[in-house]
Design brief:
The structure holds 2 protein chains of 2 kinds. Among the domains of chain A are: 49-159; 160-180 and 191-216, no CATH class; 219-365, no CATH class. Chain A contains 14 helices and 8 strands. Chain A has helices spanning 30-48, 50-72, 90-112, 121-136, 161-167, 173-181, 195-216, 219-226, 231-241, 245-259, 286-295, 338-347, 352-365, 367-463, and strands spanning 7-9, 16-18, 24-28, 75-76, 138-139, 145-146, 274-276, 282-284. Chain A has a 3-stranded antiparallel beta sheet with strand order 4-6-5. In chain A, a hairpin with a 5-residue loop joins strand 5 and strand 6 (145-146). In chain A, helix 8 packs antiparallel against helix 9. Chain A starts with 6 loop residues before the first strand and ends with a helix. By secondary structure, chain B is of the alpha+beta class. Chain B is built from 1 helix and 5 strands, in the order βββββα. In chain B, strands 1-2-3-4-5 form a 5-stranded antiparallel beta sheet, with no helix packed on it. In chain B, a hairpin with a 5-residue loop joins strand 2 (20-31) and strand 3 (37-46). The longest helix of chain B has 15 residues, at 74-88. In chain B, 24% of the residues are buried. The chains are: A mainly alpha, B alpha+beta. Strand 3 (24-28) of chain A pairs antiparallel with strand 4 (52-60) of chain B.
Chain lengths: 464, 91
């Protein structure tokens, strides 16, 4: 146990020992003696007490559990897998850092449990954990990579990478790529002949998942997000997915008629265009080819087939009369894996539509395009969100204005009502006044009527 | 648990006359730099002032079995005494 003065206090077995020569002694005061003895006994208690050890184990176990949970919950954006100047991606650095912390705790636990360990334990364990993490990470709905719930247990599986490497040593990189193209093994463990290959294939798997994700975005969704900017790309991509089997059959048939692999009766006249080479291969005659090219409109875009001499294996005469069109299974519309597409495109080299699909496939294959597209979509999404927010704010303002207008109208109406009421009152008042005036006039007239007879009587009196 | 008593650690030393003496180990330590191990033990001898005499030996495990060796070098001995002095002040 580490202690001060550059010493470790230890508790070891001595057994029976011989008396040393030149034995040195020193006298301690009783108090000092007791202190030294007590100190060492405390240390011995710590070193030997199983309860203390158990408590330590418990503490380390808890810490390890937390670290493991953190590790399982890690999430990475696609751009974090971009290689830095050191050739290691930011994501790998982060994974390895956490994996190393876990490996250290596991080593500590081994020591406390008296399990033999080795100096290389931490490094090798950390690398295994990192590989497990990368192997099990999947592209999720947050546009990031993380380990799905159902595969979290696999992150801490003690996979013996070395034995896997030996087992898979005979598989070529081509085989691995072929495996990756097969959808059915998407969720299987991906292994490769060496570490470099593991990384390569993992990168490939990430790319594939991203492509798939892009393809899954519907044209409407993309157009909605980007305002139609990337719609054309989506349409091209969807062409690949929605390839009409009938169209494909026709294209293949046309192509076969041109290269004349099959010599059916319908194309009998073209048989003369072909001849055997010295090496036994079958070829299209040069002069006939030239003639046909004069007839056939030449595609401006460079074709994938560049050779003017098409070699095909010698054909067994008994198998000459085959149907003009090879069997093309009409499968439901589905995504064509890239390898398959390429084969079909090579057959229909003069089919303009297929050429377009090829171009679209090339574009889609280009990871940079996808990356840029993803970034673009992300930016546009953010812009759209901002616009939406602004629209919401504008709506809110409009609603408030409408409310204010309504309130103003109500106030105006109330004012108008009040005025009308006043006016009515005044009118009523005027009418009443008019009535009063009229009454007064009537009264005056009546009084005048009374006065006139009085005057007449006065005149009568005077006459008398 | 902290107050739990630990058993005294005893060590057997074979004297020159062949007798075996049981001594109590007071302290054992190892220098971090040179990995030299020392054992401090007592025969519980006290002087007139009640001071306790302790013995210090170097433990050599190079042959597999531990062997007690004397502390030959003065500098080494001073270093050991410094350690004991420091540890005796520990609370």
């Amino acid at each position: 146990m580490p202690y001060e003065n550059g010493v470790d206090l230890v508790d070891r077995d001595y057994g029976v020992l011989g008396t040393p020569t030149n034995l040195r002694s020193i006298r301690f005061k009783q108090d000092s003696f007791s202190k030294v003895r007590a100190l060492w006994n405390r240390v011995r208690r710590t070193l030997t007490n199983p309860f203390t050890k158990e408590a330590q184990i418990e503490r380390v176990e808890n810490k390890l559990e937390n670290k493991k949970e953190e590790f399982q919950e890690m999430e990475f954006k696609p751009n974090e897998f971009n290689k830095s100047g050191t050739g290691v991606s930011k994501a790998e650095e982060k994974i390895l850092k956490k994996a190393t912390a876990i490996a250290r705790l596991e080593e500590k636990l081994n020591i406390l449990r008296d399990i033999p360990t080795s100096p290389s334990f931490v490094n090798s364990r950390a690398i295994k954990l990192k590989d497990n993490m990368i192997r099990n990470a999947r592209f999720n709905s947050n546009n990031a990579y993380s380990v799905p719930e159902e595969r979290k247990y696999a992150v801490f599986e003690d996979v013996d990478t070395d034995s896997i490497i030996k087992e898979e040593a005979n598989k070529t990189a081509q085989d691995v790529r072929q495996m990756l193209n097969d959808k059915n093994i998407r969720d299987d463990i991906i292994v490769a002949p060496d570490r470099g290959e593991i990384k390569k294939t993992v990168d490939h798997e990430f790319e594939r998942q991203e492509k798939e994700y892009i393809r899954n975005i519907s044209a409407e969704e993309v157009a909605d997000i980007t305002g139609g900017e990337v719609e054309s790309k989506s349409e091209e991509a969807s062409k690949m997915a929605d390839f009409d089997p009938e169209e494909l059959r026709t294209a293949v048939s046309d192509a076969l008629n041109k290269v004349n692999v099959d010599k059916g009766s319908s194309v009998e006249t073209k048989i003369e265009k072909y001849g055997f080479n010295e090496d036994g291969t079958y070829r299209y005659k040069k002069e006939q080819l030239d003639e046909d090219f004069r007839k056939t409109p030449i595609i401006k875009e460079p074709s994938r087939i560049e050779t003017s001499e098409i070699k095909v294996p010698r054909v067994d005469p008994s198998q000459v009369l085959k149907p003009a069109t090879p069997e093309v299974k009409e499968e439901p519309k589905e995504e064509l894996p890239f390898a398959k597409e390429e084969k079909e495109v090579r057959l229909g080299f003069d089919n303009e539509e297929i050429e377009n699909v090829t171009k679209a496939a090339d574009k889609t294959r280009n990871m940079d395009d996808i990356q840029a597209l993803l970034e673009r979509v992300k930016v546009l999404k953010e812009k759209q969100n901002e616009s939406k927010q602004r629209a919401e704010e504008a709506k809110e303002e409009a609603r408030k204005s409408e409310q204010m207008k309504k309130e103003a109208q109500e106030r105006l109406q109330a004012y108008a009502d009040a005025l009308n009421e006043d006016l009515g009152y005044n009118e009523r008042s005027a009418e009443e006044d008019m009535k009063k005036v009229k009454n007064n006039e009537d009264l005056i007239e009546a009084m005048l009527g009374m006065i006139q007879p009085t005057d007449a009587a006065e005149e009568n009196v005077r006459a008398k | 648990m902290e107050n739990q008593e630990v058993e005294k650690k005893m060590m057997s030393i074979v004297a020159d006359d062949g007798t075996i003496e049981e001594v109590e180990v007071i302290l054992a330590f190892e220098f971090k730099d040179n990995k030299k191990e020392y054992v401090v033990y007592t025969k519980n001898e006290k002087d007139e002032n009640d001071n306790v005499t302790v013995y210090v030996s170097n433990v050599d495990r190079s042959s597999g079995e531990p062997k007690l060796m004397g502390v030959e070098d003065e500098e080494e001995w001073n270093r050991v005494k410094d350690v004991l002095r420091e540890l005796s002040k520990a609370e």
